[in-house]
Structures are given as structure tokens and as C-alpha cells.
Specification:
- There is one protein chain.
- The chain is α/β, with parallel strands linked by helices.
- It has one domain: Metallo-beta-lactamase, Chain A.
- The chain is 30% helix and 26% strand.
- The strands form 2 sheets. A 7-stranded mixed beta sheet has the order 6-5-4-3-2-1-14. It has a 7-stranded mixed beta sheet with strand order 7-8-9-10-11-12-13.
- The chain is globular and about 60 Å long.
- It starts with 15 loop residues before the first strand and ends with a strand.
């Protein structure tokens, strides 16, 4: 079902992609915001992931929370979901009048119920004092249990593809096919055959990336350094691997995103993209917050 026009952003002639937050991992940073991506197509605004700082970055991009038509969550790590509750609250308080669709793997419904429960005293107070409706009636939850088309209309088709991000069983990438171009957002994933199929010949692949040689500095001094290092190696795609992924999928442009580490000022854009260029002959872009691709 297509999101209602009342939630739509101003119409445009092209499909626009804006990287709102490009830092991977739950720790906040002054250098990059946590993961979130905005797609504007056919007069509707679509948000992919909702990490800390998303509302601020959405406003900076010129879109109000209540103008969103749909939200897509790739998986339930906090750097992708931490601001989902506050964003839905801000959409409601800002004048949301018709339901917003939220897609993602289970337990999405339980997560949203819990987020509303956490704010319920505030919500109930404003409902009684200001005559507002119940915000839970303005959210339509769509839990994704398998790869496939999750939203389709005349000018857009959104397809979810399961990816490999252990230990989570349910993690997805999304492909947006519009009348103007095709965009794939990998979410968090190790190298994964299913992602190659989803991204086949896409115009733009926005893919997470990790720089292995910078991990020791990232985890230095942490009491869980050994376990965290093992997790990172098992569940992410390295700078050496991501170019091959783009090449095998035959995409037009590769945009690096969800940088791990994303708050190390010693890593330059050229250092991020050098290895990817060795395996991929197309355009490689190092993403940054609020970059439009």
C-alpha cells in the first residue's frame, strides 16, 4: 500500500538520495551522525533506518518528520533504530494526519509498542489537554519475514533482501526501483550472495564498509575488545571486499556508507575508497552526512 499523499514531501522531477547519517556503530560522534538515509521520489519521502540524530538531519535536508510517507528499518541494532520512537513522536506532534507505514523485521511491532509505552504519560497528557488523537492509530506496522517486494505503486517498487549480519537472523537490504533510477541500500552485512542478486545492475549501490586496519585503535582499551573484534569481522564488509561486491553486481555507482570506524579523523576519503577502486571500475563515492547522490 502506498503511503498517503498527506504525508508526502514536495514533488520533484527526479529520485533523490540524501545520506543523513553515515557512521556505523552505536556510539555518537561529532564527526558523523548515526545511520539514516532519505529517498525522495514521486512526491513522497522515504526514510531508511533511524539512528541517533535522524530528526535533526531530516530537518537539515528540508523534510519535516510528518512529511514522511514510509520508514524502512534494516535490522534491530540500536544505531539503526534508536530515534525511531522520538521521530514518530515528532511526526505526531508536528501535525501527522494520516498513517505512516513502517517496515522492518520482527520484533518491529513490539519495538514500536514499547517506544509508545515509554512516552505514554506525555502522549496521554497532550491528548487530553490539547485534543490530539492517539498517535498509535497513525502508524501502520509491516513486519518483514522473507525477501520480496514490500511496497509497490505506479512510480516505485521497494524490494527487501535478506542479508548476513550475525548474530541477527533478520536483517535486510532494500532496493528502490523508480521511474528514474534504481537504488540499493545494503544495511549492515558481510559479503552475501543474496545482496548481489538484489543489487544486480542497480544504478546506485549504497554499501556499508569497514577498514580492518583501523579496528585496533577503535577497540583499544575496551573490556570486550576480543569479542567486539570477532563480531565486526564476521558481520561487516571490508574496504577490500566492497569493490568486488559492486563489480560482481554490475552496479553503476558505489557509495560507501556506514563507516566502521566512522569517527577516526585520521582516515581520509581516499583511504576509504582506494581498495574499492582496485576491484570496481565504476564511480566510487565516500559518503558523508547530508551528501546528495
Amino acid at each position: 500500500m502506498m503511503p498517503d499523499a498527506a504525508n508526502s514531501a514536495p514533488a520533484g522531477n527526479e529520485t533523490r538520495l540524501i545520506l543523513l547519517g553515515t557512521k556505523g556503530g552505536p556510539r555518537p560522534s561529532p564527526l558523523r551522525s548515526n545511520p539514516a538515509n532519505l529517498i525522495l521520489s514521486g512526491g513522497t519521502a522515504y526514510l531508511v533506518d533511524c539512528g541517533y540524530g535522524t530528526t535533526r538531519q531530516l530537518l537539515a535536508s528540508g523534510v519535516q518528520p510528518h512529511e514522511l510517507g514510509a520508514i524502512f528499518i534494516t535490522h534491530h541494532h540500536s544505531d539503526h533504530t534508536l530515534e525511531l520512537g522520538p521521530l514518530l513522536y515528532h511526526a505526531w506532534i508536528g501535525g501527522l494526519r494520516s498513517p505512516i507505514d513502517v517496515f522492518g523485521p520482527p520484533p518491529l511491532a513490539a519495538l514500536i509498542d514499547g517506544l509508545f509505552a515509554a512516552f505514554w504519560f506525555e502522549i496521554a497528557t497532550r491528548m487530553q489537554d490539547e485534543g490530539r488523537g492517539n498517535p498509535q492509530h497513525l502508524v501502520r506496522v509491516h513486519e518483514i519475514g522473507a525477501s520480496g517486494v514490500v511496497l509497490e505503486a505506479a512510480d516505485i517498487r521497494v524490494t527487501a533482501g535478506r542479508v548476513h549480519h550475525p548474530p541477527l537472523q533478520d536483517a535486510y537490504a532494500y532496493r528502490f526501483d523508480t521511474t528514474h533510477r534504481s537504488l540499493v541500500l545494503s544495511g549492515d552485512t558481510a559479503v552475501c550472495p543474496d545482496l548481489l542478486g538484489l543489487a544486480r545492475r542497480a544504478d546506485v549501490l549504497v554499501h556499508e564498509v569497514m577498514r580492518v586496519e583501523s579496528l585496533p585503535r577503535l577497540i583499544a582499551g575496551l573490556p570486550n575488545a576480543r569479542e567486539l573484534h570477532a563480531h565486526l569481522l564476521a558481520s561487516h564488509t571490508t574496504t577490500e571486499q566492497v569493490g568486488a561486491v559492486a563489480s560482481q553486481a554490475e552496479v553503476g555507482t558505489l557509495v560507501l556508507n556506514h563507516f566502521v570506524p566512522g569517527d577516526d579523523p585520521a582516515i581520509t576519503e581516499e583511504m576509504w575508497i582506494a581498495s574499492a577502486r582496485e576491484a570496481f571500475g565504476g564511480l566510487v563515492i565516500a559518503g558523508r552526512d547530508l551528501l546528495e547522490v
